[in-house]
Amino acid sequence: MDNEKTAEIDLKVVLVTQEDMSMGLKGQKLVSNSVPIRIRSLSINDPISAYALFYYSMTGDRLCDLSALGVTPDENGTTNEDVVRAVAKYTTSDEETDLFGAYRVLTGEDFPDSIKYKSELDLYQQEYDSDLTSYIIGKLISEDSSSNNYGKLFDDRDHFLGTREGDFYNNRINFVNHFFNNKYGKFPTTVQSQTGASKMWYARNLGEVGVAADFIFNLVREPTTPATFGSAYTYLPNMASHRDRYREQVEIFKFLEQNQAEDINKAIADFLVDQQALFNFLWADARTSEVSEHWKESDWFGWFSDENFPWIYSIDLGWLYSQSNSPNNVWFYSEKIGWFWTTQNIFKDYVGLTEYQRYLFRVRPKSMGGWEGSWSLVTLPAPGSGLTEILFYDYGYVPLL
After folding, report:
1. End-to-end CA distance of the chain
2. How far apart are alpha carbons 42 and 319 in whole angstroms?
3. What mean pLDDT comes out for the span 17-24?
4. How deeply is 379 buried, as exposed, middle or buried, from its count of CB atoms within 10 A (0-12, 13-18, 19+)?
5. 104 near 246, Cβ under 8 Å?
């Protein structure tokens, strides 16, 4: 590893197919060509490093290509909150987005916190079977007229419809203005108001409450109609879309709930600590230095720093990379040693080792393809030994793949 904490490794993919003797098929091993790549050390707190961790936590899927999201974190100015919000837009279901949008349009407010959102989601799913129209109607005819900040609507009372389009026209205009303002925080233009009132009239077969619910439904869903030329037609002229914002905020609420926090920055910090804990489980016996929380001492591994996880700096072996989480099965990568395997029982305690010797199993690519490995004795520079570098004695390489 150089001073910029980067290293070059050869990457290849090994695929083993499943055996099916009923079909007379034997398992096969397919090995790709080696591709040299350069990797670099990043702290787990770095947004670029943590991006895949956030994605997996929020979606349950592995992230193989950042460009698939249309968002790539850069090294300048991207924060972990930016990353979480970027992922959020691609993970929330339409059902959850509908609920957030309906609550906003009906009340003129966003959910105040994740607790209120979770409570309303339970109601939406259990009482209304996640049906948006039923939920809107339920709120419009609720005995609690404050639920929509408009008032209770009745099926047996004229609100918006008469025998002619002009009947109750102002009522429809006022209704459109009220709920448009709830959604956007501003009143619609005259054209938008008139278009909304006309759409309510055209849907008159739905009845008094039906036309009201239909208008709110479309404010929430934001449907568009394809245009012959140019952009698609929105439900109301030049109606801006807020669906991405709804999606983002819903996923933030879920992220907060998952990490049992009320503030996104605290949730992110707690999440990263939990991820670090997965790594630290490898050092269950490690003691933290009084000088720095990142410097630790393990009985079987010695002194090391995990500040740049998943890269660690070992006093004995230098920079190492590892995402193993059991001291009984540990893989490391070192630019000097290559890939090697060891356990807490043999690393320092193998039979016959001195204080400055370590025991491990090294692997390396074969010249004709595949891998080979050898048990190796590592001798560290000891005081007064005259050694200035680590010595390796390989007992003999044997083919692995």
Report:
1. 27
2. 12
3. 62
4. middle
5. yes
Question: How many Å apart are CA 382 and CA 391, to the nearest integer?
Answer: 11
CA distance to 16, 235, 381, per residue, from 345 (Å): 31, 68, 22
Structure tokens that stand for 210 in this block:
């039906």
As given in the structure block, the two tokens for residue 328 are 């009984």
Q: For the whole prediction, is pTM greater than 0.70? A: no
C-beta contacts of 206-211 below 8 A and 24+ residues apart: 207/155, 207/161, 208/153, 208/154, 208/155, 208/157, 208/158, 208/159, 208/160, 208/161, 209/137, 209/140, 209/141, 209/153, 209/154, 209/155, 210/137, 211/160, 211/161
Sort 307 into a burial class: Cβ within 10 Å, 0-12 / 13-18 / 19+.
middle
More confident residue, 398 or 155: 398
Residue 65 CA from chain centroid, whole number: 13
Chain centroid to Cα 394, Å, comes to: 43
Strands 14-16 and 29-31: antiparallel
Which pLDDT does position 391 carry in this prediction?
92
Q: How confident is the model at residue 67 (pLDDT cuts 50, 70, 90)?
A: low
- Sequence-distant (6+) residues with CB within 8 A of 287 are 296, 297, 298
Q: Crossing angle for the helix pair 243-258 and 94-107, nearest 10 degrees?
A: 110
Cα–Cα dist 302/38, whole Å: 28
Q: What residues are paired with 21 via a beta bridge?
A: none
